[in-house]
Design goal:
The protein is built from 12 helices and 5 strands. The protein is mainly alpha-helical. Among the domains are: 48 residues; 127 residues, Outer Surface Protein A, domain 3. A 3-stranded antiparallel sheet has the order 2-3-4. A hairpin with an 8-residue loop joins strand 3 and strand 4.
Length: 286
């Protein structure tokens, strides 16, 4: 049999309860108009061993649920802890709902993709939609996982490139001091705007949902020093959030000031210093 055909039929069995019932009962008569002779041969092979097929279906479905929860543990640990706080029965039910909605999709080793999809699912269901701070944790870790996925997919990426050796940040006091320099993303960060201040939870994950979150909105940046490091979170000001967004392409400080006219020169330089310190932007010759 064609391996691809067998896989495609198997996927259809997994995601269709009517097909499961017919295959396990060994009665494929109602499928005649829906499948080709080649597909029917695959179905008959599965129907010929109903007990083994039933066990395999159960094992595969259970595995996809286990992988979904494990993916959170690997790249979105705060979200996993919140899922566990719903209670084991509710956590199992939510995970099952997600895997059914995903068509029992198996992303293999691409656990960032699984985690992103699971986070997106949780963002639309109670108690994540109802409990203050829970949706914020999902949003922050979504940014984090998106970063990990992007850098993981970029085989050429190693670590944030350093500033030009001739650049002396400490010597910069005015726009003129920076006239020969432009600032640009290092490519190792993602940002998120949250409705609350989740700092207490990030500082002490055991306090999740036990310590009240602070008022918002708040602005955050998630960054990686290299592919072996853990994601670092830093709360930044709204203006720093806006300035960072401008630096997808290189800009001199004076050009940044022109784009944000309400931002004083000293504030622009202070924000650039903060972002340089975080290691999420670098200076290059203009």
């Amino acid at each position: 049999m064609n391996p691809r055909l067998v896989w495609d039929v198997w996927r259809r069995i997994l995601t269709n309860e009517d097909w499961v019932a017919m295959v396990l009962a060994g009665d494929l008569t109602r499928l005649a108009p829906q499948v080709s002779p080649e597909e029917r041969a695959v179905l008959e092979a599965y129907a010929s061993t109903p007990e083994a097929t039933r066990i395999t279906i159960g094992m595969y479905r259970n595995r996809t649920q286990s992988v979904a929860r494990s993916s959170l543990g690997m790249v979105a640990p705060y979200a996993k802890r919140l899922l566990e706080k719903t209670g084991e029965d509710r956590a199992i039910a939510l995970t099952r709902e997600y895997t059914v909605a995903s068509g029992y999709r198996d992303d293999g080793p691409r656990f960032c993709k699984t985690a992103l999809d699971f986070l997106g699912f949780l963002a639309g269901v109670p108690p994540f939609t109802e409990t203050p701070g829970w949706a914020d944790i999902l949003a922050l870790e979504t940014a984090s996982v998106r970063l990990q996925q992007r850098l993981g997919d970029d085989r050429a990426w190693r670590a944030p490139p350093a500033c030009d050796p001739a650049f002396d940040r400490e010597a910069g006091e005015t726009f003129l001091d920076y006239d020969a320099w432009a600032l640009v993303w290092c490519g190792n960060a993602e940002t998120a705007r949250l409705d609350h201040d989740v700092t207490p939870w990030l500082e002490d994950p055991t306090a999740l949902d036990e310590t009240a979150v602070g008022p918002g909105p708040t602005w955050w940046i998630a960054s990686l020093a290299d592919t072996e490091s853990e994601v670092a979170y830093a709360q930044i000001s709204e203006r720093a959030f806006d300035v960072y967004a401008l630096l997808a392409r290189p800009l001199r400080p004076a050009e940044i000031g022109a784009r944000v006219p309400a931002l004083p020169e000293d504030d622009v330089l202070s924000i650039l210093g903060e972002l340089l310190e975080l290691g999420v932007i670098r200076a290059i010759r203009a």
